[in-house]
Amino acid sequence: MGKNLKLNIKNTQLAEAFKIKKAPTAETEASKGAPPSEKAGTEGEPKKRLTRLKEDAAISTAIKQAEKTLAARDKEVEPLIKKRKARIVQGPASPEEIKEEALPAQPAPTVEEAPVEEEEGVLPKTAKEVQVAAEPEEKGQPEPPKSEQKPAAKPSQVSAPPIQPPIPEQRREPPAKELRLAKKKEEIRFDARDRQGLRDIDNEAWRKRRAHKPRRIVQEEVIRPKHLTVRLPITIKDLAQGMKLKSSQLIAKLFMQGMTLTLNDYLDDETVVQLLGHEFDCEIKIDTSEQERIRITDQTIRQEIEASSADNLILRSPVVTFMGHVDHGKTSLIDTIRKSNRAAGEAGAITQHIGAFKVKTSAGDVTILDTPGHEAFSEMRSRGANVTDIVILVIAGDEGIKAQTEEAMRQAREAQVPILVALNKCDKPNFDAQKVYRELADRDLLPEAWGGTTITVNCSAVSGQGITELLEMIALQAEILELRANPQARARGTVLESEMHKGLGAVATVLVQNGMLRKGDAIVFGHFSGRIKTMQDDHGLNIEEAGPSTPVKITGLSELALAGHEFIVVKNEKEARELASARAEGLQRDLQAKPKLGSMEKMMAKKESGEKKILPLILRADVQGSLEALKNSLLKIHSDKVRLEIVSADIGEISESDIALAAASKATIVGFHTSIESHADDLIKQKKVPVYTQDVIYHLIDEVKNRMRMLLDKLEQETDVGEAVIKAVFKSSQLGQIAGCQVTEGTIKRQNFIRQIRNKEVIWKGKIGSLKRLKEDVKEVQKGFECGILLEGQNDYKEGDILQAYEITYLEQEL
Fold it and tell me: pLDDT at position 88, please?
């Protein structure tokens, strides 16, 4: 019974799937047997039969293929059905067994709910209605399982859900997708990226927002140090970090002590740092090891010589510096000793550079330093006094002691150097030695001729008188001083002068004071370093080594040396660079540690500078000493109306970059003992930059002062030249009111300015529009004559008003 039912269901499903029509009825059979005359009305009957035969052949082939597929599937399903029946009888099975017995997912043909053709008068039925109608009508007959109700498959459709066996209702599980929660729709919020315009909504790809995980705040116990070692200067931020404190705690403590600082400000006072540590129970020690390392040695040159073994010390030639007032004959005396003509090469016949020479004389070798006598070269004279052994104070016997002579005496006393006085120009008729002795005695330099200890020598640079005696006195003084040095020690000395050479680069004139300086030595000077490539003596000859008291010119320096800095030889060039770098860093920290102006001080300084005119300058000089002298001389110009501002100061020729800087900052270029590069002349004309160059320093200072005066506005000065009284007022249809006046004082001219006075008060000031006498225009009207005056822009006249005529003259202001 079950097998028959399955076949019926299969046939029904196949019929629905392939839309098989019912068997023809008796009426259709009768129509087929009708004579040809009756069928003539039907058109295309042979074609329909041929089409029907093709369809029947295709349907029969599809039915056979479907039957084979269903038969193969039944063979796979029957064993599983038997197992399920046995399990229902035995009891529930485990989930693993259910998984193992699950039916294989195989594609099944889909069924379309196509209408089935019925007889006339009956509505068409769908495939599902046909399937329900095919079920047995007997109540007692069991309903076939759903797995056996297999719809016929269409040949074109091959995908279908897998056939699942029936599962008891008590063990049926809900589908997995019902257990998942519905996803929340993510809302796009307006955030900081939208405010900044960084979000591209049209092109931005969707991404899932990461779940925010709250961070665990782990509070660690801070262990503050009891001992700390720091280097000065140090910022408050770094000190607080070392003490494991907040910067605000240190700032608060400093504020309570009256110090207003921020976390980036530097502390350079050892006492303040240690007091801060005491406040927070921390002992702070200042580390000076780095400073000692970059200082290389704590001993001065004299202390190093005294500490050397007596066996290594030798006598050295004395270093003598000629100092005194300008044009008293210092360079002329040196030329006489050296048998040279150095004075002729100086601009303006005055020395403007420091010179160093080693001279062989009958009294022995002498190292001579020549210093400028002009007041601008005070720093040069100071350097000369610091490196010298004996100071020769040159005084003109016909002029006596001057301002720079007194300055040289003061600098020599500060350097604790013995002074020897040379009274020059003794061959002049107005030479007066007693006058000079008196002036020396007034300044605590009692000459030997008057029973004192100061050696004086009368000499003449022109005739050569007294030169030999002067050299003997120098040798005697050097013997008393017992000047010694250690040539086996590392070389140390002082930079006397430096300049920038086109072919050689940075060139420095140095004086070796101890040790032996050799070619190829690595030296450190200030915060720069170098390796000596060439050495030349004062005659320009190349030498390989230079001993104590020898001035030489050296090249191979990394930067331009600063005059007055001490140099020292180190092990190698690498160490020299490291020491120079460490010194530069220390210099930068010291500059940053300097106190800065607060807001109020800045405001007051700005207000003060706003009331003054500013003259920006760019300075260029040939050597470091000249640049230093020029800068100091310009800064000594005091003025309440104009302020100098030095934009740049460097050594070398005036270049295109200097002109571009001057054009941008509206500055004036000042060149001392230097020239303009050849290709920079056209740029000066194009940019219209003012450039002043001079070889004499006081001429250059006068040029700058004149430039400062030109910045000041000229003062107006009013000078009264005449006066007139209004006697009558006339009306004119074209010109308005005209004042009829009589000149009472002086002369009134057409180009004069008028001051109108009424009741002793000035009510108007302006120019004369027209001046007439007897209907004729005149240039001037003298005292006692009558005239008509028309004032420009004034129409208010009254009888008795006084018209005062005056002239305006413009006066230049003084600095």
Answer: 59
